[in-house]
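dude i think i finally got it to work??
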Amino acid sequence: MKFAALESARGIAALAVVWFHTPFLSGQPTVLRMNAELFVDFFFILSGFVMAHAYRDRILGGMTLRDYAMRRFGRLYPLHGVLMGAWGVMALGFLAWGGATWFFDINSLRGFFLNVILLNSVGLQDHLNWNFPAWSIGAEMIAYLAFFAVLRVLGRRPTWLVALALSLFAYAAIASLTDTTFRRSSDLGFLRCLGGFFLGVAVHALHERNPRPQRAATEIAVLAMVLSALLIPPGRMLSEAATFAGFAATVFVLASSTGPFARLLDGAVPRFLGRISYSVYMVHALVVTLVVVWGRHWEAFPTIVFATPTAKGTTFITDWAILANLGIVAVTVAISAVTYRFVEAPARDYFKRRTGANRALPVRAA
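look at this
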């Protein structure tokens, strides 16, 4: 990835989502932790930026839908498929064991099928199930196809105003359905993804107009804005919109920044986390679910079971919450390094070769 600071920021965002889903608490969750779910929207915005950078001119230059779709499929689906297989094996183990019957109250055979075919963000189920972060992968595939279609219809590079209008249209569609939150997932979460994705496309168009390195003061101001928005209690659409704007500004600034935060993100550890961020995001739900099953079966900790029919419905109360959650993060990162090395990277490279990824394509004038 050309934008090293952005790739590293993606790794940090992935860890934030993992922390949001960790099941241990020592007291009431902080507002920052409850809002960590919104880092999924950072992924959507960054995805739009990166796709505009990597594919816009190729699509306008004649890249076929087949090649484009196969490359995106090869980037996302192999890891998803392997993990759905792992979830299936785990479910068979639960059936043989006879425990964790609550697991099958949440995770149905129909839900498994919808997850496998990535129709998990279009309103066909009323709650998240199985590998619950994968709803955003189904939503991303829809956004990729929408991006291709928009470019072919326009026949030219979209201006930042056009991309922003598409983003606002998607967010407005959500607002017409609810007046409380943009945090939709299985319940038409693809609209949330489209809003963030085309916001990222707009940021890329603005970046091309103003690619000069940003000052350190700009970095600090933007990061302070994001932090302020994340400290507002959930359930307010206006504060969520402010967070999305802050994420968009962060992407814009880090794309061309030479400030101290960008330099820090260019370190070896942040770069490593950025490389494996997709694996971290996809693997962590399996780790969390295994911990939840173990904890509920052995009653290892005082337990709160919420009514929400998702794997996030169980929270364990313990004085060792921070250490337990850090352990989950560490295990997730370790497994993700393996899945990146043996699943994610080989599949990505294989599909690149199959689609002639290195073939030069003419670029249509803007």
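The longest strand covers residues 314-317.
im so relieved honestly
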